[in-house]
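Pilot study result, target chain (480 residues):
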Amino acid sequence: MTTHAPTQLDADGPPPKPDRSRGWFPQLLLRLHFIAAIFVGPFILVAATSGALYALTPQLEQLVYAEQLHAPEAEYLPLADQIEAANAYTKDQDTIVAVRPAPNPGDTTRVMYTGDGLGESETRAVFVDPATAQIRGDLTAYGTSGALPLRTWIDQLHRNLHLGEVGRLYSELAASWLGVIALAGLGLWIARIRKARTKKDFVRPNNRAKGYRRILSWHTSTGIWLLVGALFLSATGITWSQYGGGNVGTIRAAFDWSTPSVTTDLGGESAPADEHAGHGGTVAPTSDPETVTANPATFDAVLSVARKVNVNTGLVEITPPATAGTAWVVQEIQRSFPTEVDAVAIDGRTMQVTDRVDFADFPLAAKLTRWGVDTHMGSMFGLPNQLLLFALASGIVAMVVWGYVMWWQRRPTREPGRLVGSTPARGAIRRAPWWGIVAVLIVAAGIGTLLPLLGLSLAAFVVVDVLLGLRARLRSAETG
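Predicted structure:
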């Protein structure tokens, strides 16, 4: 008689059933990462491509509009003479809304007007040689960043595909889902690197691999290096969005994290400033029957007063009163490091300072918002910031393209009619323990509440997925 070592069956009865709940979370992340990337990928691709172009626009703007932006260096005339020359050029038909004195030797002064035919947030910018008062150009400028037509066109492509408010939904979807896809990818990276024998292939591409595995290596290793940047672009991009951004603004207001602004109403208080105005904020006031005409000589006077208070940078915007009973505002507009956005309000009748705001006194949340917005736009650290954004956006473009290539490479070669591979298996949530299901529902509900457009699209994905699953079961039952 042969003998054998005791088994689990001998000692304790039947062997335990395998834990089917193990591995449910990575499978859920894989399906979420895959499905979201497939449907939202085109939006992210357009946003990243246009964002990469926008990162280069400051240099392009200087090249294309050199005639308007620059003039020979010489001693400056008073601002009043420059403004009078611009008024004569426009034949006093438009109203001045702001003046930006030449910030550096060799730059022009920008006199900004309202006028017919201008869109929301647009002004008519007349460029004046500060030494001769010669008019060097007349262009439409956009937002408080003063973007000229080329940069504005790229900005609007990035922001709303030139479709207005409806088009903003595309960028909100891209910004919202970029973070979710990146975090799901991080979860998959962690799950796979723990089991991988060659862990270095997860932090640098394996060029010795072929076909699908090579593209997967590039996608995986590049993604982990881009993770922080992608999350940053997602978070800061959401603050510009229509619905998610509105909720973020509500939260900031509730915790008193709003950006301070000077009081312009000589008898009341002004609204908080909009730190996103450079990417589409309004600078032109609405028409008002009490609109006043600014005296050109007053611009020199209020700038002189502001210089004695807290305005100490060349990049300055002087805004005259929009209506009677409001103050002049002199605002620093230097968004590169170190940030200079101090402002002072001045009563034009008495030349007395009525209010001031200093960036040093901003709440930390307002400072972080300012720095985040300016870094997202590429102005915070100048050219290095722009190059980093260009590389980051280009990397995200590559990630999307690699994703679609892998989908194509996984197609069944024995089925000529199949152009792409199958989707990751469904059913992960059914195998999850009760606490996992509760956690997923809570997180989904929280994200959907904060980011309504993401929540609606996620719900749509789930509904479609359920319907496809039911159809597959019916077909299987019919063929079985």
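One observation from the pilot: The mean pLDDT is 88. A full batch analysis is planned for the follow-on phase.
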